[in-house]
UniProtKB/TrEMBL annotation:
The record marks S194 as: Important for substrate specificity. Keywords: Acyltransferase, Amino-acid biosynthesis, Cytoplasm, Methionine biosynthesis, Transferase. Pathway: Amino-acid biosynthesis; L-methionine biosynthesis via de novo pathway; O-acetyl-L-homoserine from L-homoserine: step 1/1. The lineage of its organism: Bacteria, Bacillati, Actinomycetota, Coriobacteriia, Eggerthellales. GO terms for cellular component: cytoplasm. This is Homoserine O-acetyltransferase. Belongs to the MetA family. It comes from Denitrobacterium detoxificans. The gene is metAA. Its EC number is 2.3.1.31. The active site is at C142 (acyl-thioester intermediate), H237 (proton acceptor), E239.
Length: 314
């Protein structure tokens, strides 16, 4: 949350120069507050685990957030009960006339398929198109980020020689350090990746409507956004719990896939030892910054205007 101090206090300008968010007295006096409406499109097969991971990040802020869980009507989920879906999830048909302050599109284990070969691709395109006029800001994760890049900007994904699995060191792009999404980030930070494909940094940097914000020497692009701040792309899995990568590794071993041990994850790269967890602080900061600076601080007070022409003119 921002700090509120007198407009004329010398610290106001100094803190602003340090990329610390300060709310002026005038803005504070004219600010209305209401719960934020965020729709979570959960494409992961482990729906309960994924919704828990992301809700943990969204709940650890002072903001009041109203969550709507969304599933694909054109895809039959196999790893969650119909009762759970019927009780807690809605379909696009049920929400298409509503407006939301934010939307999160998760990853999905389908990156080796061409986008058009994913059975729910037409429905996902419909939702992303709808988001442009009914959602103020959208956060895309892993395959969801690759899908958003392709749908909105025509940037293709590329298959890797082997799975990118592990926790990797990243750096902020120097000329982007004042971007609100990076507020509070260290120069170097760690984040998990788990994917078979990538969006190349050169393709992002070459697009005039995109800003590349953070990269890894090993894992490539990690964080990007659209120049209008309406689309955020995270190519890793900052929401992952301590044991998520390990569970994926053990699953693939059990399937006889002979996976590589996730990098920088187990002590001495030994899967028999409990894995490290050293990315949660920056993961929380990423979600908090998105929710605060790209949703709460900029979304219209009347949620019915979110994503519409009046919203885009703000």
């Amino acid at each position: 949350m921002p700090i509120r101090i007198p407009d004329a206090l010398p610290a106001t300008d100094l803190l602003a120069q340090e990329n610390i968010f300060v709310m002026t007295e005038y803005r504070a006096m004219h600010q209305d507050i209401r719960p934020l409406r965020v729709v979570l499109l959960n494409l992961m097969p482990t729906k309960v685990a994924t919704e828990t991971q992301i809700l943990r990040r969204l709940s650890n802020t002072p903001l009041q957030v109203e969550i709507t869980l969304l599933r694909m009507a054109s895809h039959a989920a196999k790893n969650v009960s119909e009762q759970h879906l019927d009780t807690f999830y809605r379909t696009f048909e049920q929400i298409e006339h509503e407006h939301f302050d934010g939307m999160i599109i998760t990853g999905a284990p389908v990156e080796r398929l061409e986008f058009e070969d994913v059975d729910y691709w037409p429905e996902l395109c419909q939702i992303m198109e709808w988001g442009a006029t009914h959602v103020h800001s959208t956060l895309h994760i892993c395959w969801g980020a690759q899908a958003g890049m392709f749908f909105h900007y025509g940037i293709q994904k590329h298959e890797l020689e082997q799975k990118m699995s592990g926790v990797f060191r990243h750096r902020r792009i120097v000329d982007k350090v004042t971007t609100p999404l990076l507020r509070g980030f260290d120069d170097m930070f760690w984040a998990p990746h788990s994917r078979y494909t990538e969006v190349r940094t050169a393709d992002i940097e070459a697009h005039p409507k995109l800003d590349l914000l953070a990269v890894s020497e090993e894992a490539g692009a990690y964080l990007a956004k659209s120049s209008d701040d309406r689309n955020i792309f995270v190519f890793g899995h900052p929401e992952y719990d301590r044991y998520t990568l390990g569970n994926e590794y053990e699953r693939d071993v059990a399937k006889g896939m002979f996976p590589q041990v996730p990098k920088h994850y187990y002590p001495n790269d030994d899967p028999a030892q409990p894995p490290y967890s050293f990315w949660r602080a920056h993961a929380q900061l990423l979600y908090t910054n998105w929710l605060n600076y790209y949703v709460y601080q900029t979304t219209p007070y009347d949620v019915r205007l979110a994503g519409g022409k009046e919203d885009r003119a703000l």
